[in-house]
Amino acid sequence: MRALVIDDSKTMRRIVSRVLVGLAYEVVEAADGQQALDALAAGPLPDLACVDWNMPVMDGLALVTQVRANRDWRDITLMMVTTESEHSQIVRALAAGAHEYLIKPFTAEALREKLDLLGLVPAPLAGTPA
Amino acid sequence: MSAAVAADPGPPVAEVWNVVEAVWESLLEAWPSPAEPLAVEADWLTAVVSVDGDWSGAVALSCPPRTALHMSRTMLDLAWDDPEPEPDDIADAVREVVNVLGGNVKALVAGARALGPPVLAVGRPNLEGNLVAELHVGWPGHAARVGVWRGHPRPLTHTNTPAAPPAGRSAHSQN
Question: Fewer CB within 10 Å: C terminus or N terminus of chain A?
Answer without folding.
Answer: C
